[in-house]
Amino acid sequence: MRNIPFGKPIIGDEEKKAVLAVLEGPVLVHGPKAKGFEAGFAAFVKAPFAVSVSSCTAGLHLAYFSKGIGAGDEVIVPAQTHTATAHVVEFCGAKPVFVDAERESGNIDIDQIESAITPRTRAISVVHYLGMPVDMERVNTIARKRGLYVVEDCALAMGTYFKGIHAGLWGDCGAFSFYPAKHMTTAEGGMVITKHKHIAEGIALEKAFGVDRQAAERKVPGMYDVVALGFNYRMNELEAALGIEQLKRMNGFLKKRKENHEALSKGLRNITEIGLFKSSHGDFQSSYYCFSFLLKGSLASKRIEIIERLKSKGIGTSVYYPQAVPHFTYYRDKYGYKDNSFPAAALISHTSIALPVGPHLNTEDMTYIIDELKNCIHDLKECTAK
Ligand SMILES: *Cc1c(COP(=O)(O)O)cnc(C)c1O
Q1: Can you tell me the distance from the alpha carbon of 249 to that of 199, in angstroms, rounded to the nearest whole number?
Q2: Which of 52, 54, 56, 130 most suits a substitution to test ligand 1, by most atoms within 8 Å of the C-beta?
Q3: CA quadruple 40, 42, 48, 54: dihedral positive or negative?
Q4: Strands 95-99 and 284-285, sheet pairing
Q5: CA atoms of 154 and 164, how far apart (whole Å)
Q6: Are 358 and 325 in contact (CB under 8 A)?
């Protein structure tokens, strides 16, 4: 039996050496590693500005905070996303106004954005669901017409391109995650990219207490001024050292993900009991975070059984996401959302299974997954036919 975890970071000797080297030195925060990682990341995605932060969630929070979004404001948020996309709006005291997904991609249904906009709306947020890019041209057209700020949750979008431009550069800013299960890791960590100097400067200030000079920039040690309200959302030097090494592996990681994803697409294409999401095409280039599919008909109620059966065969799976965000208890209790709201997001949440395609796996692992999933579907069909 194979052992196929859903996600597994690839940490080599280079990463270990880089982290140890930081520990040997005097600088653990605010040092050259964070600056180097920012420069490397900016070059990788071709961003004018990149600011390292302690997580994607911190980056998204700063994106709204630095814009001054707060109480009385509303932000358009996709219903089908990680809860962080919505939580950061709540952190600011603003209200997330959820918009359903489109079934074909899992991305925000752009056709439903305009009717969710009110005079209080300040921003539109999107998530590139599982790495498939949102049509940012259409989102920006709506945003421009209404004078709205655009924030991209790029947590799963390293290697995502729309019309040849990397995710995060279409909106006003975009935030990435380096949590262990993502495309590359710094253990915890994030990066905000933007085309706008003032946004980069605002976020850099507010991620470190609103202090005007970092330690190395102080002429007289210990002397600084506080010019804004700010958080402690910095990335430390150990994380940044990891990031610099992981970046060197990124092209290889992306290539492997694509190969694995294509193997699953080919192997699972003709199974009538499962529904697939749109795959990469033309202007829409995915980062291939995972291979998610929908169970149809009588199989839809058998999801737990399938997940457990795959687990017994050594195959790790995940679900993106277990509920549409407005259906989680916190949002339901606060805003009164009902089960029948956001039907596409609910369908995806309740009937999808995500299979792994990460660089820790090879095409033989994919063949094994295909065979085991087919066996499982075959057996369950026999059972329901009886
Ligand atoms: C993982 C994830 C986040 C949170 O990232 P952190 O770095 O853990 O804060 C936010 N949004 C999406 C879509 C994610 O997948």
Answers
A1: 29
A2: 56
A3: negative
A4: unpaired
A5: 16
A6: no
Name the residue with the closest Cα to ligand 1, atom 14: 155
Which of 83, 60, 88 is closest to 323 using CA atoms? Answer: 83
Within 10 A of 281 (CB to CB), how many other CB atoms are there?
9
For residue 72, the CA-to-ligand 1 centroid distance in Å is: 25
CA 1 to centroid of ligand 1, rounded, Å: 32
Q: Tens digits of per-residue pLDDT, 256-296?
A: 999 999 999 999 998 999 999 998 999 999 999 999 999 99
Tokens 């169970």 found at: 295
**Exposed/middle/buried for residue 212 (C-beta within 10 Å: 0-12, 13-18, 19+):** middle
Sheet holding 291-295, edge to edge: 274-276, 291-295, 352-355
174 within ligand 1 shell (Cβ under 6 A): no
Query: Does any ligand 1 atom lie closer than 6 A to the CB of residue 80?
Result: no
Burial annotation 62-95 (CB, 10 A radius, 16+ → b, else e)? bbbbbbebeeebbbbbbbbbbbbbbbbbbbbebb
Which is the closest atom of ligand 1 to the Cα of 178?
A: 7
Mutate-to-test residue for ligand 1 from 55, 82, 156, highest number of ligand atoms within 8 A of CB = 82
pLDDT the model gives residue 386: 58
Give the tens place of pLDDT for each residue, 201-224: 999 999 999 998 777 777 888 889
Q: Cα angle vertex 250, ends 46, 167, to 5°?
A: 40
How far apart (Å, rounded) are the C-alpha atoms in residues 331 and 90?
A: 10
| CB-based contact 151:157 (threshold 8 Å) | no
Q: What angle do CA 204, 205, 211 make, to 5 degrees?
A: 140
236 CB less than 6 Å from ligand 1?
Answer: no
Backbone angles phi, psi at 125, to 5 degrees: -115, 150
